[in-house]
Amino acid sequence: MADATLRYMATHDSLTVWWDRPDDAGAKRRYRVMVNGEMERETSVTHCTIRGLQPSQTYRVAVRLDADGSGRFHGLASVEARTTAVKRVLDVTQPPYYAVGDGHKLNTAAIQQALDDCGADSVVVIPAGTFLTGALRMHSHTELVVSKGATLQGTTDPADYEPYIRSRFEGIEMDCLSSLINIGELDHDGPANVTDVTIRGEGAILSGGRELMRNVIEREKQRIRDGRSTAPAAVGRPDGDDTVPGRVRPRLINMSNASRVTIAGLTLGQSASWNVHMIYSDHIVTHGCTFRSKGVFNGDGWDPDSSTDCTVFDCTFETGDDAIAIKSGKNPEGNVINRPSRNIRIFDCRAEFGFGITLGSEMSGGIANVRIWDCDMSRTSFGLEIKATRKRGGYVRDVRAYDSTFSHIQLHGVPYNDDGEDSGQVPVFEDMLFDDVRIEDRFPASGDARGKGRDIEVCGFDAEHPAHDIEFRGLKITPTQPGEVDPDANGMGNIRLRFAQGIRFTGDCE
Q1: d(Cα 19, Cα 25) in Å, to the nearest integer?
Q2: pLDDT value at position 482?
Q3: Which segments within 159-298 are labelled E, that is strand?
Q4: Using an 8 Å Cβ cutoff, are 247 and 231 in contact?
Q5: Distance of CA 371 to the CA centre of its chain
Q6: Residue 241's pLDDT is what?
Q7: Helix, strand, or coil (residue 285)
Q8: Three-state SS for 214?
Q9: Domain Fibronectin type-III, which positions (predicted)?
Q10: What domains does the chain contain, in order, with CATH numbers?
Q11: How many angstroms separate the CA atoms of 349 and 88, rounded?
């Protein structure tokens, strides 16, 4: 629901609008959001939530831009946005569901029945309390609201996440346990099979965290010994004893072949692995959420995987791995399926802990048209990392980052997650711009060496396969320690270029 650049999400009494950063927006930019010709708000970020509206009403929302702080505003974008009707409430604690939010009773059947009963004119509501549940499934045209003071709490028992479903983990299609919330069914040759789903509220959706993670891995090791697991058939050389059994872990929210899914306002976390994972999906929007998974192995926050037109904004991350990881499959399967991740937008996001924003290492289907702006990843171990293994194939291209802070920016090959047959092709890193970005390492784990090293690293794979056509414009580097600069870096910081062509440092770099 959009014109060329202005998009929106509607409830019965609010509109959340967002737009791309204009090319001419400078450091002193301001936006005015107008509703029916009246100014609603002036802001420096590219999104706004408008509250106190009437149901089933159309509002003309327009955004005006002052690009340089001069006070001269001009029209940027507009849209006719309509609020929804007031929906029929399906309260899971009321008849015929009778869910109990005491943190002890298992409510899977009751909540699933409410979701099954939900149609386009209704909404499933989780009221205040802690509602223990196993795996749940949402169909098209459904809405789930987790209210303030409410927690949808996944159990720590792997049996509650059965049956196994077809999914994808670390680039390999395989049978995994069902996630806490499941949307769609996996089909790499097919279109979306679930559409128009909303999950929102001011509450929390949490899973079993480290305990569930360990329980799944130990159970799967026994299944491997008993010959009942399909996991080993899909891999060549694992990275450790937990790698193969760990790949069947459930996610928190999994979308497979889904379209037009919105996740908003919630605290999300403590998955046994990745938290929000979208596979072969499109038009997925996540905003206003807090991700918490510190201490969880592979505890990624938000992972588009061979998915397109995915947007995350106004989110905070404290994760046990990547805050955001963009993927598109692993060699050779990912090369054959050949579904890239494209048109990814990440803005006004911040991290308190974790690895940062990652493109790869599973990128055999390609990654293109990624835009990042107004983000702070300075408190992460890697900042912004673009990575692959040499035999992976695929590409990462057309990446732009603006007005953001990272602990590091690194483009390179990595030795881990390297199982699978050689694709026969070397990955391509090309066509990237980092404009007005700041390098400042504020990673809070002082004894953790992850990510330490070069402020900027651009490394291709060999002389015939260089990283190329990459520009740093207006780069600013704050050394971790006074005087900590590379003597070969012309005073700009600790920079390494290897097997790199067409690398430019322009503007006023510091």
Answers
A1: 12
A2: 41
A3: 164-169, 172-177, 181-183, 194-201, 204-206, 253-256, 258-264, 267-269, 276-279, 282-287, 290-292
A4: yes
A5: 13
A6: 84
A7: strand
A8: helix
A9: 10-65
A10: 6-82 (2.60.40.10), 87-320 (2.160.20.10), 354-442+452-510 (no CATH)
A11: 33
Judged by DSSP in three states, 210 sits in helix
CA–CA separation, 145 and 164 (whole Å) = 26
Question: Helix/strand/coil (H, E, C) string of 426-494?
Answer: CCEEEEEEEECCEEECCCCCCCCCCCCCCCEEEECCECCECEEEEEEECCEEECCCCCCCCCCCCCCCC
**354: its two tokens:** 């974790």
Q: How many Å apart are CA 76 and CA 345, to the nearest integer?
A: 18
- Residue segments in the chain with a per-residue pLDDT below the cut of 50: 1-3, 234, 481-491
Cis-peptide, bond into residue 245, ω within 30° of zero: no
Three-state SS for 160?
helix
Q: How far is CA 82 from CA 2, 141, 187, 198, 284, in A?
A: 11, 17, 33, 16, 20
Tokens linked to 323: 């805050």
What's at 255, amino acid-wise?
A: M
The pLDDT of residue 147 is 98
Of residues 184, 102, 105, 195, the one with CA closest to residue 142: 195
**Token code pair at residue 315:** 């989110």
Residue 324 near residue 348 (C-beta atoms within 8 A): no
d(CA 9, CA 371): 20
Distance CA 326, CA 250 (A): 19
- The H or E element containing residue 225 is helix 209-225
Beta carbons of 135 and 161 less than 8 angstroms apart: yes
User: What is the C-alpha to C-alpha distance for residues 96 and 106, in angstroms, rounded to an integer?
Assistant: 16
User: What one-letter code names the amino acid at 34?
Assistant: M
Nearest to 8 by CA among 285, 197, 309, 373: 285
Sequence-ordered strand ranges (E) for 83-157: 88-91, 102-106, 122-126, 129-133, 136-138, 142-146, 150-154
- Cα–Cα dist 352/354, whole Å: 7
